[in-house]
Structure formats: structure tokens, C-alpha cells
Specification:
With 424 residues, this protein is an alpha+beta fold. It has a single domain, classed as Cytochrome P450 (Cytochrome p450). It is built from 17 helices and nine strands. The strands form three sheets. Strands 1-2-7-4-3 form a five-stranded mixed β-sheet. A hairpin with a 5-residue loop joins β8 and β9. The relative contact order is 0.17. The N terminus is likely disordered. The structure holds protoporphyrin IX containing FE. The site of protoporphyrin IX containing FE (HEM) has 26 residues, from α7, α13 and α17.
């Protein structure tokens, strides 16, 4: 694939991608051309509340350049679905923030045999049957113990004292990090997330991420050295050994970027998915009461509705390998296109009243776990973990109300409530 100047941030005498896709559009000023709405979107707008932005893009400009994010956005369900499977797009996306943050090769931005090898080290441990064998014995004791420490902590914030710790610890223990404590694990995923959301290439975000990356490597490298000599059943060990000729292991530099990606998504998202769901339920006590009355019947669909309503991971990056067309829109070769799952999940062409949180809506697949060959490797683990975390919480608290105002949500690549403070 030819890599050309992306023209996302207009330079003097340089045509923008807008000009490439809308040649001849008249200018209001007479000196240039009209500013396209997508070019006015800021990272702050997205961080605060991306949903009105996505609604407007879906209606008026569904595949459009967003210079603030250094990529294009695809916002309709049908277009995201098309791009995820389109032969003219690759996951090998030089512009994806995870490359700069965590290094390459990594499972998210590789294709073909490299992708298979990296995914193959992680995925088997998180397949549905395997997860069913160990999830109760792994997660329930963690959740129950964490609820006790929440009650003893003096804090009333379920986000920081319950959902995030359970999620971080469950993933770390399942993946092969057996010794690292919960505050460290939480610090790790918060630091890693600063790199993964760094679409705007902010040096401050990068510095936070890189200091955590150095810490993770200082823990992971000796662990990998030991596992190379003495394998075990953990995904960390599998990444080293699976599919390798007898006596050989993958070098740590080939594995570490994918370890960081799994630590980030695997530790952060189930906790945030659970918190998003709880806020949705607490904002509508009738739905919470209905769930309590039939938890076995309704919890699975409530979990999916929470993930659809606020997708914990908002986007995936794909890059056009040649000049191509999607939905009649020309996309030049080399263009990084962020496929916005969070927007696809609110597409009015697919759901009635898509902005509403409604655990009773007719069941339809959502995109919170992605699309295509990079579909989330931890989906079953995540859903089972949210299930147990919610049951333990609801059993312990027969009533749940917010301590003060309902929390706001923040973020667009990763979205979660700013807190989850309850009245105690
Ligand atoms: C509610 C929780 C979770 C959500 C919403 C979520 C969402 C996603 C999404 C949207 C993708 C695709 C990203 C892309 O294509 O760019 C993805 C990929 C991935 N997820 Fe998850 N995830 C969750 C939990 C987990 C857990 C617990 C694990 C632990 C194993 C995990 C491991 C991965 C891996 C390894 C990939 C990369 C797959 C590939 O590139 O082939 N995720 N996840």
C-alpha cells in the first residue's frame, strides 16, 4: 500500500481531503471553501458527549474527515459493517494510536498470519466453554472480597472501589499476572488508556502512557523469561509457546504490545461496562426493579443493552489500501477511517429511540465487541464477569440510589461514568 500525505490537517497550498472528496464546493468567503461540519469537531466535544456529534454525522455526512482526530469517521451501522469486511481496508493502520503507544506488531493492528498467531495465544482461554469452567470460581470471590473492602473503605464510589478493582483483578489473574496488586493494576489501565486515546498526539498523554508501559515491561519481562523455561496454562505463557516449533518461543518484543492491549481492554472494559449498566438502571428505577424481580431472565439482555447504550470502546481503526468507495463516498488510498461502534449502536436505521436505555427493547446484535476478524477475544469472559459483578452487588444492596446527582459520562474512545457514588 502506498502511504501518502493524509491531508487531514490542512497545510498551506495543500488540498484537504474535503477538497478531494468534494471538489468544486463553493466558498462562503470567496477565499477558500466552506468549512465542513466534521472539520469543526473538537476532541473536547467528543470527550464530553460524542452522541449528538454522531447523530449529525449519521444524518448529513456519514463518512467524513475529522482533522482533530487525524482520521475519518464512519458513523452508520451499515458502513461500519461494510468497512470491517471490505477487501480494500486493512487493520494494519499506521495512524492507530495503539501503535505509537504500545508498539508493533500487535493483535489489533495486524492482519493475516501475525494476527492469527497473536490472537491464537490469547483467545483459547476466553472461549465460552472454557470461561464457563472457571468464571464463577475466579470472579465471585474477587467480587465478594472487593465489596467488603468497598464497605470498609469509607468511600461510596462503586466505580473506583468495586467495578474497576474487580475487573482489573479478574483479568490479571486469568491472564497470568498473579502477583500484581489491585491499585497497581488500576494505575496500569488508566495509564495505558492515555496512549490508546491519543488521537490528537498529545505529548502529555504519551508521557503518562510510556511511564506505565516501562513499569509493565519491568514486571512482564522476568515473568516471560520464567514462562519460556517453565510454561503454564496462562495466556501469557501461550503467547510465548503456542504454534512454535519444539524448543522455541516467540521473542518478548513480539508479544508485549499485545499484552498491553489485552491488559488495557481486558482490565478496563468489563468494569466500565458494568458501571455504565448500573447508571442506566439507577436512572430508571422501574427498570432496576423489574431486573431485580427477574434477574435470571433479564440480566443477560440488560447487560447487552448497557453495552449498546454506552459502548465502553467507541471505535476501531481501518485504513484504505487503495482508492475505494463505500456507500457512494470516495475514500482515497491510505486514509485512516475510524469505524465508530458507539455511533453504529445508536443508528436510528436499526433501533427505535436509540438514545434510550431500555432493557426491554427487542433483541438485536450490537457492535460493542467490534466487527469482523478483530472481534473482541474476551467477549464471553467480559459478559460473564459483568453478570457475576452485578449479581453480587444487587444481592448485597436491596436498594440503590445515587448519593447526589447522577454521574456524567466522559470519553469517546473509552466511555464511562465519572463516578458511581451511592447513598450508604
Ligand atoms: C465489556 C468489555 C469489553 C468490550 C466492550 C470490548 C470491546 C472490544 C472491541 C470493540 C474490540 C475490537 C477493537 C478493534 O477492532 O479495534 C476488542 C478487541 C479485543 N478485545 Fe475486547 N472488549 C471487552 C473485554 C475484553 C476482555 C475481558 C478481554 C480479555 C481477554 C478482551 C480482549 C480483546 C482482545 C485481545 C482484542 C483484540 C482482538 C483482535 O484484534 O483480534 N476484551 N474488544
Amino acid at each position: 500500500m502506498r502511504r501518502k500525505a493524509l491531508n487531514l490537517i490542512p497545510a498551506a497550498n495543500h488540498p484537504t481531503l474535503d477538497m478531494l472528496t468534494n471538489p468544486g464546493k463553493p466558498s462562503r468567503t470567496g477565499r477558500g471553501r466552506d468549512m465542513r461540519y466534521s472539520e469543526t469537531i473538537s476532541i473536547d466535544d467528543l470527550d464530553r458527549d460524542p452522541y449528538p456529534v454522531y447523530t449529525r454525522l449519521r444524518a448529513d455526512d456519514p463518512i467524513a474527515p475529522v482533522p482533530a482526530a487525524n482520521c475519518w469517521f464512519a458513523t452508520r451501522w451499515a458502513d461500519v459493517e461494510t468497512i470491517a469486511r471490505h477487501p480494500d481496508f486493512t487493520a494494519v493502520s499506521p495512524e492507530a494510536p495503539v501503535n505509537a503507544a504500545f508498539g508493533q506488531p500487535n493483535v489489533l493492528t495486524s492482519d493475516g498470519s501475525m494476527h492469527q498467531a497473536l490472537r491464537g495465544g490469547i483467545e483459547p482461554h476466553y472461549r465460552p466453554k472454557r470461561v464457563a469452567d472457571y468464571i464463577e470460581t475466579l470472579v465471585r470471590p474477587i467480587a465478594e472480597a472487593q465489596l467488603q473492602s468497598f464497605l470498609a473503605s469509607g468511600s461510596n464510589d462503586l466505580l473506583t472501589e468495586y467495578f474497576e478493582p474487580v475487573s482489573a483483578l479478574a483479568l490479571a489473574r486469568s491472564f497470568g499476572f498473579m502477583e500484581v496488586d489491585t491499585p497497581t493494576l488500576r494505575r496500569w489501565f488508566h495509564g495505558l488508556s492515555q496512549g490508546a486515546i491519543n488521537f490528537e498526539r498529545d505529548p502529555a498523554r504519551d508521557a503518562i502512557c510510556q511511564s506505565v508501559v516501562a513499569e509493565i515491561e519491568s514486571v512482564a519481562l522476568p515473568l516471560l523469561e520464567r514462562l519460556a523455561k517453565t510454561p503454564d496454562q496462562s495466556p501469557l505463557s501461550h503467547l510465548l509457546h503456542a504454534g512454535m516449533p519444539e524448543g522455541q518461543t516467540r521473542p518478548p518484543e513480539m508479544i508485549l504490545p499485545s499484552v498491553k492491549i489485552t491488559l488495557l481492554g481486558g482490565m478496563q472494559e468489563p468494569g466500565h461496562g458494568a458501571a455504565n449498566l448500573l447508571v442506566g438502571l439507577m436512572q430508571d428505577p422501574a427498570q432496576l426493579a423489574a431486573l431485580r424481580a427477574d434477574i435470571d431472565g433479564l440480566l443477560p439482555q440488560a447487560i447487552d443493552e448497557g453495552l449498546r447504550w454506552i459502548a465502553p470502546i467507541g471505535t476501531m481503526m481501518r485504513t484504505a489500501t487503495k482508492d475505494t468507495t463505500v456507500n457512494g463516498i470516495s475514500i482515497p488510498e491510505g486514509t485512516p477511517v475510524s469505524c465508530i461502534f458507539a455511533s453504529a449502536n445508536r443508528d436510528e436505521a436499526r433501533w427505535d429511540y436509540p438514545d434510550r436505555f431500555d432493557i426491554f427493547r427487542p433483541s438485536k446484535a450490537h457492535m460493542a465487541f467490534g466487527q469482523g476478524s478483530h472481534f473482541c477475544a474476551g467477549k464471553w469472559f467480559a459478559k460473564a464477569q459483568i453478570d457475576i459483578t452485578m449479581r453480587v452487588l444487587l444481592e448485597a444492596f436491596p436498594t440503590l440510589t445515587f448519593a447526589d446527582q447522577p454521574p456524567e459520562f466522559r470519553g469517546w474512545e473509552f466511555r464511562a461514568p465519572t463516578h458511581c457514588r451511592i447513598a450508604l
